[in-house]
Amino acid sequence: MSDSWLRYLNFWRRDPRRDVDDEIRFHIEMRVRDLVARGMASDEARRIAQRDFGDAQAVRAETLRIDERMLRRERRGEWRSAIVRDARVGLRSLRKSPVFAATAVLCAALGIGVTAAVVSAAYAILVRPLPYRDADRLVAMYGANPARGIKGSNISWPDFIAWRDDTRAFSAIGIWTWTSATLSGDGSEAERVDGAEVSANLFPILGVQPVIGRNFVADEETPGHNHEVLLSDRLWRRRFGAEKGLVGKTITIDGRAYTVVGVMPPNFNFPDRGDVWVPFSTTAADEAHGNRGYAGAIGRLAPGATLATARADFHRIDANLERAFPDENFGWHADLVPMRDDLVGDLKQPLKVFLGAVALVLLLVCANVANLMLARGATRGREMAIRSAMGASRTRIAGQLFTESLLISAFGGLAGIAIAWLGVRLLKFGFPDQVPPFFISLKLEPLTLAVIAAVTLITGLLFGLIPAFRVAKVDVNSALRDGSRGAGDGAHRSQLRRTLVVVEIALSVVLAVGAMLLVRSYRNLAGTDLGFSEHGVLSARIYLPEASYPTRAHSAAFFGGLLERLRQLPGVTAVGSAQGIPFSGWNVQTNVNIEGDPPPRRGEELEPHFQLVTPDYFKAIGVGLVRGRWFTPADRDSLAPVALVNERMVAQHFGGRDPIGRRLRLGPGSPWATIVGVIRDFRHYRLPQPMAPAVYYPYAARPSRQQTIVIRTGGDPNALVPSLRAAVREIDPNVALQQVQTFDEAVSRSLWRQRLQSNVLSIFAALSLGLACLGLYGVISYAVAQRTRELGVRVALGATRRNVLMLVFGESGRLVLSGVAVGLTAAYFSARILRTLLYGVEATDVPTFAFVAGVLGVISLVAAAIPARRAARVDPIVAMRAD
Question: Which of 85, 613, 635, 714 qualifies as a FRET site for 449, CA 20 to 30 Å off?
Fold first, then answer.
């Protein structure tokens, strides 16, 4: 006992306040000395010394309680010491086997990293809360007509009014539609930005308020009083220098003065991008039920209402509308979609595929590392036998091995953070500009790190379970008696390792088949005959402000002058314009009547794709003429217009008859237009959707303020961008270009989903193939090392080098064939999940399955070649001397 404690006890004895029984004093002194001597409980000793006890029994009871606490504390200390000791032993053991350690850590890092990256993306897209109040109560509303195959279409103003006023399931419903605006007049270059027209109650429904200023009010929806604007935080900072006094001032939008009433919160966009929002307003033309020209509506479910009850409620309203307006509303009903599903769109299915694929990769990684640890554990039989003989229990031996697996997993987790960071960045590059939607932020965040920690622990337990169980069951007597030979593989352990290799090969086959199917699908899409020539074409969309171009004549003069300037540019071979180019999202349909045909039955009206184009538009995009003639500059008569139709229009609505000279018109009251030519079909919508029947009118007959300029050149189309901007500025500096891009970029952007799917699964497949081959190499290499003496005997007895090679390749071949057979069977059933993602290839495509099996066979032969070559070079004399 230390001198300080002796002094403390002497003081306690002399303390006049301590008037206690001698027996109590004796027990206290002895207990204090005992606890302090153990060096573990000075605080407990002081507590006893300072307490007053009524009798010796109370002292003994208190000391028993302290003994129990001390025992628990000692056991915890022993566990901590054991863990620290096992960690030190594990680190020394891994340091002695650097190749094994590096390989195992790299495998674990790859599995953990790719898992964390994909889970991070899935969380960001499918789980992370939307930036709206109670977003799970928000429902997007669109139009649908199942009989015509229409889903998610625009809505009409009268239908919206009926939904808003008659619903019982929603507390409020707001309407919106796309728009864009030209900002000018502030000394900066004119700029076209995206945005939306929104009803005054829409942002309150979303639960979003401006951070500066106010929201719209109902009176501002009145035509002529709707010159207010809300700005995004991004635009406010970039163009207006974050001027706080901007609210209440006017800015020029489309040639008119708009009052800035507020600035929205940072990172807020609606519906998935946007910089300006103006009040929604209607005109007299919007009163028609058949005029479905608005993007959609958003409602907030009333308390107690569900999506199912809302759909039933809207079914009642739509039935009433169809009875009241049979011509316009026949077959139409509301399409209600939860807000997240509407924003995520078709990203959900690929993400589910990615999550399934990454689960297979993680299982493969666990099998691979477990195989490596089994191989290493087979050589540690004598070490484990000695530990067992010296008193180590199987639990302690298993704990040591588990500690080593957790160390590998921990180092793999640390390296996995870097791989996850890289994976997230690569996923970002897979998305084109303005995609994914604004609410998706792909980044490493605390949740991702938590996922990495969880996956690290789980993988450490998974791939450490079997090796710990197997190695801990070592036969002490056999291992000590046989020496180093006791460290070899037993039959059961060898079979287990082979089984793990078969599992690895099977998993890699499943991933490779899925990746190959998606790659072939992407190539089929990318190789689709578009019907036009996308190379060497530049496009740019232009909106003319109504205030500066109030009449059709003004619009025609602007575009006529611009096209003429562009034709004079060096290297330009053709210039034209249309309302929307291929893959731009332009999808306007109109009701068409063909002269001489009987009126269509209700619900079967002819509604082809419709556009206004200039004479050289089809020449500029490379679409051919089947028969008839092109438009000419003389086709300007709006009372007796001419029209072009495509091949699909002829096939579906002219019954094989020659359409040249036939007439059609755009609804009752419109003038009849004479068909003068038939153009070749081309892909206008996003692949793989085919082109619909289409009708084209000459732009000069019905000039509009919105057109997309198309320029074909023999050189680099991007080199024309400065000249295009200069030509627009020469005519009107307040007109801005929007969506300036080449046709190659437009086509590539339209395929980003398919490209992302094929690239991600291809990476997973390559990773899985590499891991499977690494596992096969490890098994065959170890088998050769274990059979060195046997191979030496065979060679001594006359076996040739070819015999030895065939022996080794035969063993690897059996493993590969077993794995491929299991993998192809599993792939046959699992590939059906990809059916909705494929184009031009079946989910059970035989050539794909055969190709994957062949590639895996070749790679497996390469993996087995090195150990086979080493086996063929066995020296019988050296092998027979080896212990």
Answer: 85
